[in-house]
Amino acid sequence: xxxxxxxKEDRHRSLIWLGAAAFCGFFSTVYNHYGHGVxxxxxxFLFLWxxxxxxxxxxxxxxxxxxxxxxxxxxxxxxxxxxxxGSLLQGIFxxxxxxxxxxxxxxxxxxxxxxxxxxHLLQHRS
Length: 126
Fold this sequence. Notes:
The chain is mainly alpha-helical. The protein has one domain (about 5-125). Helices cover about 75% and strands about 0% of the residues. The chain has helices at about 10-35, 40-45, 50-65, 70-95, 105-125. α1 (about 10-35) packs antiparallel against α3 (about 50-65), α3 packs antiparallel against α4 (about 70-95) and α4 runs antiparallel to α5 (about 105-125). The longest helix has 27 residues, at about 70-95.
């Protein structure tokens, strides 16, 4: 599969996700640097959620020969963004030495949104 076999919208979306992954990687590096020697797994690997978004748009058309529609793309985008925010908050709380009972809600809702998007895609592929 070549990059030319991917639709223009999917390339554009994957570039946005790659930019978000680069920003998250830079942000987590700077935040961990000023974390007074305390590091967080959730903060260190924050860039993986947007990277999954880029992979979603780059590999999905080639592997399943299907392009994500608006509903499935929006659900997966919202889910990955929610998972990234949950990871960011968990990392901030761990570095600060505190916690919040609301952070797991981000992971549950983000996972459900991603699952709903994938199921919608599989159900409506032609």
